[in-house]
């Protein structure tokens, strides 16, 4: 993979980019260092995903403002919903719409674009950016770090129980420039917040590389819920890492709706660093057309009495394929840890493929670990049963599929994400 | 379609996984009639029911089956149901995530046809009434379809569906298994409430007990994939008292199939 053109040219372009955005020096340096790391790091190898034939190098830095006629229709359904919730709309890396930020700010809650935050809150950014996902983790992360265009910054002060979900919608309207989004969520001790991130694009989007990083720091006793809906079209290559560091008695809940039709490699989960910390994850993946999913939920138990619970449902139709890895890693010293996971995948068509791989890496004796994984086709007897009552085959299939997803869908702890996933599935299900 | 229904099965052959199970079944069920099919385990009773309903595993290899003169075998499963055929299954499937009430409403509306759907409130009122008649707790409406239901609860739920859908011809496959005596009476009442000239019934059972509540006009014995003997209700009593061996002997049937052990 040679993503970038000549490095010295790229370094110049990047400097220009920083300059037009009036970025502070530390950001310019961060980007330049990432560019060097990018050069030095090896190409990441994914066991189940081959990126060699994906057009991941066909992009250039772009500063043209996004066309409202393109981003509006994509963002509008989300803008229309939940008017009470603060919202950032970012199109092609530019903040194009926002609401409810002042009300949040009045309570000490900072919710703004990362582009603004690097200027207004340099001390927080310097301390926490890449504190959870290191800049040199792999080549894609370095690329994101060098070329990030925007993202959301969330800061919840100590003891603040913030109710309305903070939402960010990232729309990519023009392909070929890379969708590099970086979100940073900081929840101080005993605080509480929900963050919703939605990634969408018009179906006509041409070849596009999307590298997304979401970093979360959950301080002592804080509770963070993050819901994601990722809906990118066929010609997209998506490499995404979402990771939280959870400190003592903190809780992190992940909700992921993966409905992209492109090529997606996504890892999400928590590093449970504090004693008694907890994390749950609920994931729903729906693959249609030639979608490829390589999804890993990753729960790392560092501390004693840490607890994780992972649930996933995947449905593949057409020629879609999915690999779902449930990785529970319990490190030495994490005694009393409990890691549970359950993943079920359903294939609706003869050409679809699905694979569930539970991985339990356990370096400590005194722990509890459990997993349940299944992959199957739609049950013939269930279909027969429903049809024998006069329900058409298409409707019966829909009922079985909804029934398969519903136990996870109905439990999704953020209503906005649940509704969004529902309406997308409604549209995509053949 | 307010005329009296008629199901005509002619020389029906069917196989499952390449194994020939039905070997020439002849039977006619008309509106107003109750037929019972008895017979040892594994002789093809459920196969007949599944083949008529159109389960994809059961391949019809010969003969015909007509409902009101129309060739059932050419219809998809759901079309057969909408023509008025109903099968209460020996082992009903569980469908997670689909509420019982919602399922029945969709099924009923499919049967009533577009433009004739039943209003939601009316449906729920009637459903609750019917559930009450079957002594089912109202909570069963919102539970996932058959999921975690006991054997007896599943059977009641089959009858509930039948009373909601009001079929023209119904086949009840061992509806009595897993029911205690009170439940049996309640279920039989539910079935009998549908009886009339516009409703024909085929009951598959091992037990005379059920037939005391749902009194048949005809009793048939199935062995080796065929109906080998037909008679009136007294035949059921005789089978219960004497088992099947005398009949096998009379017919010269030698096979490994165990007797029903009634
Ligand atoms: N889905 C299937 N796959 C394989 N074999 C089957 C299947 N269904 C039925 N059979 C076989 O066909 C034969 C007839 O089975 P069937 O269920 O029709 O018997 P039955 O008369 O209903 O018996 P019972 O009184 O035990 O319910 C048996 O040998 C059975 O094992
Ligand atoms: Mg049977």
UniProtKB/TrEMBL annotation, chain B:
InterPro entries: AAA+_ATPase, ABC_transporter-like_ATP-bd, ABC_transporter-like_CS, FeS-cluster_ATPase_SufC, P-loop_NTPase. Residues 7-249 form the ABC transporter domain. It comes from the Bacteria. One of its GO terms (molecular function) is ATP hydrolysis activity. Keywords: ATP-binding, Nucleotide-binding. Pfam families: ABC_tran (PF00005). SUPFAM superfamilies: P-loop containing nucleoside triphosphate hydrolases. Belongs to the ABC transporter superfamily. Ycf16 family. This is Fe-S cluster assembly ATPase SufC.
